[in-house]
Amino acid sequence: MMMKFLKTIRNSIWVIPVIYCLMALALALIVVYIDMNILPLLNFELAFFLATSVDLAKEILGSISGALLTMTTITFSTIMVVLTTYSSQFSPRVLTNFVNDRRTMRVLGVFMGGFLYSILSLAFMQQATFEGEVISAIVAVMLAVLCLFFFAYFIHFVASSIQVSNLINSLVEDVKDEIEKEEKRIDQDHVAVSGLKPEVVESYDATTALQSEDFGFIQFMNHDRLFEWAEENGAVIHVEQLVGEFVTTSTILITIHHDEGTEIPDSLIRNIELGKERSVYQDVDYGLQKIVDVAIRALSPGINDPNTAVQCIHYLSEALIKNFKYTGTYVIYNDEKHLGRLVVRRSSVEDKLYKMLSQISFYGRQDVTILRTLIEALENIALNSTDDVKRDIEAFSRYVYDGFDEDVLYDIDYKYINERQVRLSEALNRAE
Questions:
Q1: How many C-beta atoms lie closer than 10 Å to residue 432's C-beta?
Q2: pLDDT of residue 96
Q3: CA 174 – CA 170 distance, rounded (Å)
Q4: For a pLDDT cut of 90, what percent of the chain falls above it?
Q5: CA 56, CA 140: separation in Å to the nearest integer?
């Protein structure tokens, strides 16, 4: 539950702006305290540009607060325009990549914080309260200059974000980061990968199936806690579902093989957390699916941008090469006696190829460029894969070619496609 709460806070839009507003409130209180209690006690005069009279400070603070409110409104409107562009041109599922980007929220937070400081300082500014000059205005001026720099940076960031190449690269980097985390989990000494579901070696008196307490997408599995409980109690846990799958209240999440007297705590099932939408965290397939969504949208008649789909296919092949380092369909956590205590399912190579490339193949079945790029992508994957992966690639390549509409091909199309097929065959037959 704590992990889910922290993830919710991390992904919330309001967190960073609220932090910046609290910092602005603290700054306003500190500056007002300095103006009231420290400046009157100084034995020297500040430079003319550091302190102003109360009347001038009010004018400056009023002007800056109005300007910063306008900039905040413009920033918010720009964010809404970018979100509309992401949703209509790319995919609704990539909205979170822009919204959750800390740079977006920091810019909005700086403007909101600057406005809050100015308006609070103006509210505290009373002629009878302050003696002599104050520094509240010059602090507001420095914040306004800082906001200008952030605004210029924000314009650059937005212009960069709506470029499809940068978006695809960002999506791939998220996937590769998650793949590296998965590899680190698998590379642990007590963790192994297998293509076959391991048999339960020990004999147990009872088997308990725990069903989901709610419905939604599986967002997170705490493998370490499940493994610790199974090891401490001499049990074997089989996780029946994949991260990212949708489950209902009747879906079996885990199956536990245990002795008759073993007490299974209610909290055990809560190590598998559900949510209303999928997350890239622990879900490599969802990260890949976002790239697929961008490719499919590019192939739609309304967009008709096959070159973007081609770029997505190339990036997908790079991510799949990295993801196919481990090809087993089960991750096994072993105890000190090398007995499997936790068994977790993984997607197979065949499943990943079908899920990630079949839709692109279908919607691009009349575009020879898409067919040629898919064959090229399969060739690149084959050149960096084991024989087990190559067998799945060979089967999927036949699926791609058989599903293509050959009525749109001309002689020159056959020439280039045949060249690609020959290179794919050579890659598949090349020894590891």
A1: 6
A2: 83
A3: 6
A4: 56
A5: 12
Which tokens belong to 411? 């002689």
pLDDT above 90 for 13: no
Question: What residue spans define the domains of the chain?
Answer: 12-162, 164-348, 364-432
> At residue 418, what are phi and psi to the nearest 5 degrees?
-65, -35
- What's the average model confidence in pLDDT over 178-184? 92
Distance CA 206, CA 185 (A): 30
The architecture CATH gives domain 164-348:
Alpha-Beta Complex (3.90)
Pairwise CA distance, residues 32 & 28, whole Å? 6
Buried-exposed string 125-135: b where 16+ CB fall within 10 A, e elsewhere: beeeebeebbb
Q: Tell me the pLDDT tens digit for each residue of 276-323.
A: 888 888 899 999 999 999 999 999 988 889 999 999 999 999 999 999
Task: Find, among 343, 329, 376, the residue nearest to 357 by Cα.
Answer: 376
Residue 71 token pair? 């900039």
Amino acid at 233: N
Going by C-alpha positions, the residue among 36, 62, 159, 166 that lies closest to residue 115 is 62
Task: Report pLDDT digits (tens) over 200-247.
Answer: 767 788 889 999 989 999 999 999 999 999 999 989 999 999 999 999
- Say how far apart CA 334 and CA 189 lie, in whole Å: 9
Vertex 340 angle, CA 336 and 342, to 5°? 110
What's residue 392's pLDDT? 94
Say if residues 343 and 332 touch (Cβ distance below 8 Å): yes
Dist. CA 114–CA 423, nearest whole Å:
60
Q: Quick one: pLDDT at residue 267? A: 87
- Specify the DSSP class assigned to residue 135: S
Angstrom CA distances, 307 to 94, 296, 311, 359, stand at 19, 12, 6, 16
Task: Match 């490339």 to its residue by tokens.
Answer: 357
- Looking at the DSSP bridge assignments, the partners of residue 333 are 191, 342
With 0-12 CB in 10 A as exposed, 13-18 as middle and 19+ as buried, what is 196? exposed
CA distance 231 to 222: 14
The pTM is what?
Answer: 0.85
Q: What are phi and psi of 259, to 5 degrees?
A: -75, 160
Residue-level length of the chain: 432
* 3-class SS of residue 255: strand
- Calculate Rg over the CA atoms of the chain: 29
CA distance 124 to 143: 18
